[in-house]
Each structure stands twice: as structure tokens, then as C-alpha cells.
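User: My instructor asked us to take a sequence, write out its structure as C-alpha cells, and then describe one feature of it. I'm not sure where to start. Here is the sequence I was given:
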Amino acid sequence: MTASKYDFRQFQEELAQLERKTPAPAPAKPVGKKAAAAQRLSVARDEFLALRQRHGLSVADVVAFFPEEEGIAYLQELIAAAQTKPRRRTKPKP
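Assistant: Let's start with the prediction itself. The C-alpha cells for your sequence are:
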């Protein structure tokens, strides 16, 4: 799939529309920094996956929009997320 500048601009415009559409609701109680970061990441991931699915983009198409170093970093993150490490068990005390 060849990507023209129009495709990239349209993609950027749709991302901007998504950002404008989602107002940040004020939480009832303050959440910690890690929880807030995880929540933002979760929302961004869901929106990104929906956009990717709507346009039928593959991972290669998405990576092609980024500079080479960022594309490689993105692929490494996907691989690391897919490889879950087994949970360590605690040794029983004698």
C-alpha cells in the first residue's frame, strides 16, 4: 500500500478530531500518577486500534507513518507486550 501525503494528512486530521471529541471528565476522587498514566494510555490505545480497524491498516502501514527509529521502537514494544513473563513464586520459609 502506497501512502500519499493526503493519506497522512487525513490520518492526522482524524486523530485531531478524536482528541477534540473526547472531553476529559473530572474524576470524582484524585487518582495516582501511575493510574492516570495507565488510564490515558488505555484510552489512547483503544482509539488508535479503532482507527486502525476502521481503515483496515496493518502494523506495517502504521509503522510506515513513523520515522524509522520510532517504528522500530513501536515494533519492539508490541513484541515485548506479547511476551508475558511468568510470575515468580515466593519460596516457602523453612
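For the description part of your assignment, you could build on this observation: The radius of gyration is 18 Å. Try explaining in your own words what that tells you about the chain.
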